[in-house]
Amino acid sequence: MSSSPSETPGCERIALSTFTEKAYLDYAMYVILDRALPHLGDGLKPVQRRIIYAMSELGLQATAKHKKSARTVGDVLGKFHPHGDSACYEAMVLMAQPFSYRYPLIDGQGNWGSMDDPKSFAAMRYTESRLTTYAQLLLNELGQGTVDWGINFDGTLEEPKVLPARLPNILVNGATGIAVGMATDIPPHNLKEVAQACIHLLDHPQATLEEICQFIQGPDFPTEAEIITPQAELLAVYQNGTGSFKMRARYEHDNGDIIITALPYQTSGNRILEQIAAQMSSKKLPMVEDLRDESDHEHPLRLVITPRKGHDSETLMAHLFATTDLERSYRVNLNVIGLDGRPQVKPLLSVLHEWLEFRTQTVRRRLQWRLSKVETRLHVLHGLLIAYQHLDAIIALLRHEDDPKAELCKGFALSTAQAEAILELRLRQLARLEETRLRSETEVLSQERDDLQAILASEQRLTALLRAEMQADVARYGDARRTPLVARKAAQALENSALIPAEPVSVVLSSMGWVRVAKGHEVDPALLNYKAGDGFLALAKGYANQYAIFLDSTGRSYTLPVNTLPTARGHGEPLSGRLSLPDGARFSDVLMGAEDAPWLLACDHGYGFLCRLADMQSRNKAGKALLSVPEQAQALPAVAVDPRHDQWVAILSSEGYLLLFDLYEVPQMAKGKGNKLIHIPPARLQSREAQVLALTTLGPADGLCIQMGAQRLNLSAAQLQAYRGSRSQRGHKLPRGLRHGPIRMSRITTV
Known about the structure:
Layout: H1 16-36, H2 46-57, E1 67-68, H3 69-79, H4 85-94, E2 106-109, E3 128-131, H5 136-139, E4 149-151, E5 158-160, H6 169-172, E6 175-178, E7 183-186, H7 191-203, H8 209-212, E8 226-227, H9 231-240, E9 242-248, E10 250-254, E11 257-262, H10 269-281, E12 288-293, E13 303-307, H11 313-323, E14 327-333, E15 335-337, E16 343-345, H12 348-389, H13 391-400, H14 404-412, H15 416-423, H16 432-457, H17 459-477, E17 504-510, E18 514-519, E19 536-543, E20 547-552, E21 556-561, E22 573-574, E23 587-591, E24 598-602, E25 607-612, H18 613-616, E26 624-625, E27 639-640, E28 648-653, E29 657-662, E30 675-676, H19 682-686, E31 692-698, E32 703-708, E33 711-715, E34 732-733, E35 743-748
Antiparallel strand pairs: 1-3, 2-3, 4-5, 6-7, 8-9, 9-14, 10-11, 11-13, 12-13, 15-16, 17-18, 17-19, 18-22, 20-21, 20-23, 21-26, 24-25, 24-27, 25-30, 28-29, 28-31, 29-34, 32-33, 32-35
Helix pairs in contact: 2-3, 3-4, 7-17, 12-15, 12-16, 14-15, 16-17
């Protein structure tokens, strides 16, 4: 009979939730520590470290011949990194791309990708690689007892847990990675600036972040695009260890063309062209006439934008910065594995201090390793010199004794190491010149031992050594900053109206509320076709990049972009499909023009005011309550006002009274009822026996034409003097009574 699991010896029972939680946490920590996050000491993730170490073991130094990348990838996978070959090769490619790494670690031959398509690299069986000279900063001190070693995945080999970097590669080349529950985004920096900051911290351990940022002013990418984030915001990013900054493409002008010469980091020129071309094809970029790519070997990046005549290049570029990848934001997250083996987001000062601690420990271990080697050699040399002093006795001992090592140790007070060194001497090394060489070597090593002991015993001398080594590395590997820091305001996209060609158009409104747009201003609305029972109501002339303001009989205003209205090829479309009118209301007018242009609004009860076109605009489908119209009253068609010419208002009542008064007596308002323009007895208004029929504006020398059905009455400027008065007066009776039918008033301009 079999026993239950709980009764089986050596079987442990745990809850499934406990097991899964522990398993997931173990997996998460493995991904964080062994896959995704870089170590603060050398700034490398495990796969990168293993690639660099494997290449050094293969002898692929900067002076060696290139070897197939597949050879390196095979060694890395077979010895240290048992994961996918494609992921390993991609990590290798990234360290070889000069447009991805600020200071590449691998020197490649063949197709290693391009700025437009970093993933377009050839397969590893085609490319060849070796280490760069900069990679020696990570490897030169590897065999000098500087770092700890661990066994590889199958326990057959040893690999370094971290490389002894001579400069803070974590900042110089940066790093990116996504782990479980955390990520890292460390931008690259200029080697000279980082080293100078480290040297300053060595001399002034209490230095503030503001002092350090005088050296490290900001990231430094392989591209020459600008970092436009202000210095104060960059300081806050370094203070917190997290944040973001913006990069913007650089451009210049050449015979009216805009030449883009540098793009933000990891931005594709082809992608930029596609984004601009998409806006051009959708007619959202009318200010661009031509777009082309003139990049070649002499000019690795040369994107040419030709703006149309009359358009401002700076405004165009500001729009492109806001709507394309010509301006991009980059996240900063200084999340690294510290010297304690734990991942943590660290501010810039903590990163530098901790790296200096790592470097100090590394140099101290190197010096102690060298001191141990020197002392061991001096011990052997001391034994060899004893042998030369007693050469004949030692030769006799060697010829007659069965265990010469033991006799040497006993007879001459030598150690086992000294005795073995004496026994390994060749006959040619017994010459007197060899003794002289040994004494000279002893003197040199004794001096080196004293120097090493003095450095290890003095923090000041150790600091001086660190400073000198960093200065030497800067002199060899340092270069000028590539990414300029220029504080600029964030770009703003242009309004939709600015992206539409300013073509002259005419908006036609029918009596039944159908609207359409005809090109040009020479449109005769009477010649257009209308639906049965419909006819022309109002016409507005303007431009395609403007808004059309529609007024209804209740005094509400509605706004639609002209470029969204149907063309005049057909009957148009009803406004009721886009706008919501109150019950019983109908559209009465359509307006277009400059936003600051004043218009005279009034109702047939004789109240009105001046209003700017911008105040009539509304984003609501139900419009805006613009003119307060009393019950049983209706809004009159709006009258355009030219402040430079118009000085008088002419208003006509159904009783036959005409009144002219000064335009400046009319108040300017954003909305409301306005003031009384002409006096009509209230009782007659309520009974609809009297009302305002028409109004218009006139200049000082203009005449007035009143058309009553088929008859017309023309009044000259001199005749109009008899009708002048003040606002809210009744006016004066016309010489002839009014006829039945539609009445219109229009100015007669004197040329």
